[in-house]
Amino acid sequence: MESHYADLIPHYYKEDLLKVATRGLQVSSRQVSGAGHMTMHTHPRGTAEAIVASLVHDTVRLRLAVKTGVIAKL
């Protein structure tokens, strides 16, 4: 979801910041359209939709990794 507001921080900087801050363990990130600071309070529905989309995406990736033998079954 893209915001209709001008983004002052370049995308590549955000990606690098998240990678360093999470020590490379972050799986995904999402933007909630029209939201900024305190997204979970100002856009609760968009926050919930982003969380569900991330969980579904991560579950599909995990199942594919197990199916292809990239990781062993847990």
Task: Considering the chains and any ligands shown, give keywords for the structure.
74 residues; mainly alpha
* Count of discrete structural domains: 1
Low-confidence parts: none
Give the overall form: flat
Give the overall average pLDDT: 80
Percentage of β-strand residues: under 5%
Structural class: mainly alpha
Q: If you compute it from the alpha carbons, what radius of gyration comes out, rounded to the nearest whole angstrom?
A: 15 Å
Largest pleated sheet: none
How many separate helices?
3
Describe the structure.
The chain has one domain (11-67). The chain is built from 3 helices and no strands. It has helices at 11-21, 39-42, 44-67. The longest helix has 24 residues, at 44-67. The protein starts with 10 loop residues before the first helix and ends in a 7-residue tail after the last helix. The mean pLDDT is 80.
How would you concisely characterize the structure shown here?
The protein has about 70 residues and is an all-alpha fold.
Topology:
Blueprint: H1 11-21, H2 39-42, H3 44-67
